[in-house]
Amino acid sequence: MSPRELIVLGTASAVPTRQRNHNGYFLRWGDKGVLCDPGEGTQRQMSHAGIAAHDITTVCITHFHGDHCLGLPGVIQRIARDGVPHDVTVAFPNAGRAYFDRLRWASEFQPTDVIRPHPVAGSTPEPFGMPSITALPLRHSVPVYGYRIEDPSHVRVRGDELAAAGVRGPAVGQLKSTGSYVTDDGRTFLLDDFSDTVQGMSVAFVMDTGVCDNAVELACGVDLLVIESTYLESEREYAQRYRHLTAMQAGRIAAQAGAKKLLLTHFSERYTIDDGALFAREAATVFSGPIVVAHDLLRISLR
After folding, report:
1. Binding site annotation covers 67?
2. Does 22 show up as a binding residue in the annotation?
3. Domain check: are 149 and 269 in the same one?
4. Mind listing the pLDDT tens digit for each residue in 198-211?
5. What does the pLDDT look like over 229-276, one tens digit per residue?
6. Are residues 111 and 205 both part of a single domain?
7. 147 & 169 share domain
8. 244 is in an annotated binding site
9. 140 marked as binding residue
10. Residue 10 and residue 27 share a domain
11. How confident is the model at residue 118 (pLDDT cuts 50, 70, 90)?
12. Which of 31, 37, 55, 67 is catalytic?
């Protein structure tokens, strides 16, 4: 399998700290690269992580609060400066198109024509890109979309069982292409009886939202859920007021969605790196799977 890896570029929420850069997540997906929510300092964090502008094929902006987008001008200008030859799709909420246009042309630079804006709108925008990316609206103080990145599902034939039944070679190819195979002696074999549907690898990004059904839908069965957990339960009142999640609420979304692994991020500046265990402990009260508390430049293999 081609490499699949998440590199965390930043883990702060509205205010960066000495320990945490603003948001930023780079998903290496084979020869593709998805950059999600580049906040301030993203270019420098990319250098620390060994990510080149040429590695980026898609940028996903969940919304236009500064900690999720103010690194975009620098990233676009770096794409131009480094002469990236391939198209780079930039997805963002259409309701914030004016902000995208300002960020796209935030300062004087030698422009590039490889940037391809992809505004998303409505309750169920069409999937786009390669790998396939699905966007769904979440619940925040401004229009915000979460993103799900995934490979398509595929059918895996149980060849050993077919071989034991005497079906081999070209007959297996016919079974896979037509869904059935009839032997010379009249026996019928159906693909559904000798195959399994294997779900493709998937990652969901759920940022800046209150509890909502679409957060669960985006995360349904994903291999990795990257989700904001701005507060602990002791500050749940703030979470409700500003439409954010606590670590326990993030864990509950992961549990309801059947996510395989949970990555907590986007922490309020009131917390330090030493508080990470508190976030993991809260989420673990409702989610039994693996829990990772993100820190800057963390790398997670998705093999």
Report:
1. yes
2. no
3. yes
4. 778 999 999 999 99
5. 999 999 999 999 999 999 999 999 999 999 999 999 999 999 999 999
6. yes
7. no
8. no
9. yes
10. yes
11. very high
12. 67
- CATH number of the domain enclosing 77: 3.60.15.10
Domain membership of residue 60 as a residue range:
4-153+199-301
Q: Identify whether 160 is a catalytic site residue.
A: no
Residues 213 and 173 in one domain: no
Kindly report, residue by residue over 54-93, the tens digit of the pLDDT.
Answer: 999 999 999 999 999 999 999 999 999 999 999 999 999 9
Quick one: pLDDT band at residue 1, thresholds 50, 70, 90?
low
Q: How many whole angstroms separate alpha carbon 12 and alpha carbon 68?
A: 10
Return the higher-pLDDT residue of 200 and 111. Answer: 111
| Residue 115 in tokens | 């940037």
